[in-house]
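WARN retry 2 of 3 for item q-0093 after timeout on previous attempt; input resubmitted unchanged.
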Amino acid sequence: MNETAMERQKRVMAIFDAVIELDGDTREQRLHELCGDDADLLADVRVLLAADARTGEPFGGNASAWGEALAGDAAQDAMVGRTIGAWTIIGVIGRGGMGAVYAVERGDGAYVQHAALKLIRASADTPAARERFLRERQILAGLQHPNIATLLDGGFSADGEPYFVMERIDGVPIDRWCDTRTLSLRERIVLFLQVLDAVRYAHRNLVVHRDLKPSNLLVDADGRVKLLDFGIAKQLQGGDVTATHDRALTFEYASPEQLHDAPITTATDLWQLGVILHRLLSGAHPFGLTRDTPVASQLQQLEREPEPLTRAAAQATPELAAQRGGMSPASLAHALRGNLAAIVQACLRRDPEQRYASADALANDLKAWLDDRPIAAVPLSRGERAKLWLRRNRLLAASIGAVVIALIAGTGVALWQANEARRESARSRESLQFLSDTLAAASPEQAMSKEVSVRQLLDSARSELDKRNAGAEVKQPVQRMLGHLYQSLGELKIAAALFDAGLKNAEPKDRGEALALTADMDNYAGILGEMERCKESLALAERVQAMRQRFSPGDEAQRMRSLKTLGSAHSCLRDYKRAERDWNDALGIADSLRSPPTAEIVGIYDALWLMLDMQGQYDQALALTDKGLAFVDRAGQKADTPLRVGLLRSKATSLYRLGKPNDALSFMQQAIALQRASVGEKGSNTAILYNDLTLILNGLGRYREAADAALHAQRLGEEAGMGPAEAAIQLSNLADALENAGDYPQAVQRKEQALAMLDKAGAGSDDPTRRKIEVMLARALGFAGRFDEASKRMTRAREAARKLDGEDSMQYAYATWQMAVLEKNMGDATAGLPILEEAARRWTKLVPPEHTVFTQVHRVRVHFALMQGDLALAEREQRAALARFQVTQGAPASLAVAQAEMADILAAQGRHDDARKLLLQALPVLRESVLPQELNRSAAEALAKQLGLH
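OK item q-0093 returned
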C-alpha cells in the first residue's frame, strides 16, 4: 500500500524529533537505523536538521530562538548605507525566511520618497530564475488595490540578488490594532472584510498570497488595512500552477497542503484567513501555537484538529476577553457560538475542497452574520431563517424607536411637559408631526438601505430641519432635542450650533416651560465649557440660575442643578476653589433629596474627581470614583449604562497615578468599550478616553501603541471641536510617548506646541496643567541635551510648586523627582544626590511603597554611584531595582533598561560573561520598544559592541 504525503511527513517529523538532541556519530548512527535504505526519507530529515542548525532564518516558522538569531545578524547591518538601484538603505525593518526588509529612500535625487525594499535571498543566477523573478515582478506591479501595498520598483542588485521596492506602511499588525482599541466582535469583522477585499482582488488576478498573517496585515492611522509581502506569492496560471518546491512559509499559519507538498490553490489563503480570524475573535491560535513553540512541536500540533472557537474563548483570560468590547470569557464564548464558529470552522477544514470555495464566499457569510442573515456554511431550516429575519427587523425597529425615545427624553422635559400641559395644542401636534417627518426621511424604505444608523437618522433630521420654513415655536424644540443627541455623540460644534439656534430669544411663559429651557441651557453651558468658551458658559449658567430662582423658588433639586452648572463654568475659568465649593454644595443638596437625579450626580462626581486629581490627591480621587460607582449601583442603573464611562475612566487614571498601570488598563478598556457601545467611536468624550489610554500605555512601556492612541485622540478631538486646553493635554501625552521612544527633538517640539495652545486658552502661569507640562518640557530638553535651558525651566517649575502647592504636595514631589532625573542626565552627582533623596522622602508620604517611582529611585542612585566610582553600591542599588521589578511587574521596556544597566555594572567589574547574558535578554526588548537614539538603548548597544555582541 502506497504511503500518503501526510503519512510520510509524519514519519519525517518523528525521526527528526528522535535525533534532534543527538550529536555527531550518535546522531548519524540513529538516523541510518530509522531511515534504513530509504534515501529520500533520509534526505528529507536532513533538510529539517540543516534548517534547525542554520544561523539565518531557516525554512519558515517564528520560533523565538531563530528570531533572536536573526536579530543579531551583524552582517546584515552592513547593508545600511548601500545603494541598490535608485534606492539607498537607511535602516532595517525586519527579516524573514525569504530575506531582509530595509527602510530606503531614493538616492538618485529625482525626488524625495521613502519606501521598503525587500532583498530576496533566493538564488537568481540562472536565466530561468531571472525570468521567473521578472514575471513575478510584473504580477505584483499589476496588483493595484487600496488595501494592497503598492509595488514601486524592482530588479537585481549588483550582486545579482532580486529585490522589490514597496510602498512603506506606517501601521500596526491587525491583531494588535484590534486589541489596543478593544474592538468589539462586529468591529473586528468589519475590519477583517478589508483584508478579504484585498485577497479577493489578488485571487481575481490569479495570485495566491500563501503567507497571510497579522504581521503582513498592517492597519494605518486612518484604520485602513494594507496587505504586505507578496514575496512568496504564486500566479495561478502557466506551467507551474501547483508548484510546491518553494517552501518559504510561516508554520503558525501554514495550511496542510503547504506542510505536505500538496498543490497550492486559493484554498491555502482561505486556511490562513481562518487562522487569523480565529485569533482576532478568540485571542488564541486554533492549534495552541505561539512564537515560543519549538518548530518540531509546531508541526506536531498542526496535525491535530483545530480547537473550536467557543472553547478557545471560554479559556481566555479576563483581560483578553475584555479587549473584545469589554466582554468576559463566558460572554465571549456565548457570542462566538453558532454562525461565527461555523464560519471559522469552514475555513479550517483540512481538505482544501471542503473549505470555502472563494474569499468572496467567506466575505458573503461574514456580511450575512453582520446582517443577522443565514450563512452558507450552515444550512438552516425555514424556522431558523424566520427567526433571523425577525431579529433583523426587530433590531432595526428598536434602533429607530430608541432614537425617538432619546429625542423626547433628551429634552429634559421640553416636549414632555409642554405636551402634557397642552396635549391638544396645535403647536405640539405640529412639532411632533415635524419630528415624525424628519425621522421618516431616514427610514430604510426612504433611504433604500437595510441598515440605518442612529447617526444617519440624526443627520437626516438635521438636514430636513434646515429645509423647513416652520416657525421658531415649532422648530426650536426639535433643534434643542437634536443638540442633546449630538452632544451625547461628542459632536460639540454641531450641538452648539443647534442649541444656539434652539435657544435664541426663547423665553418661558410658565414654570413648566422654564424647567424645560433651563435643562437645555444647562447642557449648552456644558458644551460651551468643553469648547473653552468659558465666559459665555458662565454667563449662561448665571442666566439659568436667575431663571430657576424666578420660576421655581425653594426647589432644592433645581438649585442643585444650577450649582452643578455654575461649578463647571467656574472650573472652565480656572476658578477651582469656587468650582469645588459649588459642587460640594450640590452634593450636599442631593443627599437630602428622596430621588436625586442620577446623571447630574454622576457628573458632579466626575468633576470633583478632576479637582482631586489636579491637586495630586490620588488616594482620595480613587476613593471618590468607588463612591460614584456605588451610587450608580444603588440608583439601579444597568451594567452597560454610559453613566459609568466617566467614573471608570477616572478610576483607571487614579490607578495609573498610584503606580498600578496593569489594573488601570483593564478599567480604561472597559470605559472605552462602554463608550463605543453607547455612542460610537467618534466625539470629544472618546478623544479624552484615548488620551488617558496614552498615559497608561506609556506606563506599561508600550510606547508605539501609546503614540498611536495619542494621535487617534488628537484626530478625534480636532473633528469634535475640542478646545485648546484639552488639545494641549493630548499633545503633551503624545510628546511623552515620543520621548519614551527616544525621539527627543519631536518631544520638545510637541511640548512647546502644547504650551502655546495653553497660551491661546488663556491659562496663566499658576494653571496646574501648564505647570505640569512645563516640568515635562524641562525633562524633554534634558534628554535632548539642552541642559542650560532645561535646568532654568526645571528650577522655575519646582520653585512655583513650592510656593503655590507647598513642599508636601504631589506637584512639588513630582518636580523634585524630575529635577533629580535631569541632574542624572547632566552627570552631576554632587548636586543630584540630595535632590534625589528629598524626592524619595516626599514620595514616601504620598504613594504606597509598591509605586514604580521607588524602583526608578534605585536606578538613579545607580547612576550617581557610577559617577562616583562606587561599583559595589551601584550593584546593590541595581539589584534592589531588579527585585522590585519582580514584585511590581513593571513595564518590559523598563525592565530591559534595568537589565542593560546591570550588564554595564558587571562589565565594569570584569564579569563579561554575566554582562553578555543580561544584554542578550535586554537588547531584543529595547530594539522592539524604542528608537536607536534612545539614551538607554544607545548605551546598551555601545556596551554590546564593546563585549563583542555586534
